Amino acid sequence: MLKKIHSPKVPILLLMTLVLCGCDYQLKRAIEAYQGDGVIRYLEKPGFLGRSGCDVRMPSFDLSQPFYAEYDLSGLPDANAQ
């Protein structure tokens, strides 16, 4: 008769998946709440051990001309909150 061996790997992997998905969900909600200038977008994590993120695109400008701008980044997601 074969004995069934319970491996703790499956529950740990399931827990890690739920935690990581929760982090992505929080980041996506924070991105939706962004109220600053520019266009913000969600960036998928680069691999299994990577972290998701976001980038903010501001209007382009001609580098051969003098240019001055101030940008508001209100509601920018906190990178350390994940």
Describe this protein's structure.
By secondary structure, the protein is an alpha+beta fold. It has one domain. It has one helix and two strands; from the N terminus they run αββ. It has one helix at 9-32, and strands at 39-43, 53-57. Strands 1-2 form a two-stranded antiparallel sheet. The longest helix has 24 residues, at 9-32. It is elongated and about 45 Å long.
The shape, in one word, is elongated
H/E series, N to C? HEE
Structural class: alpha+beta
Q: Strand order across the biggest sheet?
A: 1-2
Number of helices: 1
Question: Using only CA atoms, what is the Rg?
Answer: 20 Å
Low-confidence stretches: 13-20
Whole-number average pLDDT? 77
The description of the largest β-sheet is: 2 strands, antiparallel
Q: Which strand-content bin applies to the residues?
A: 5-15%
Count of the separate structural domains: 1
Helix content: 25-40%
Span from first to last CA? 47 Å
* Number of DSSP strand runs: 2
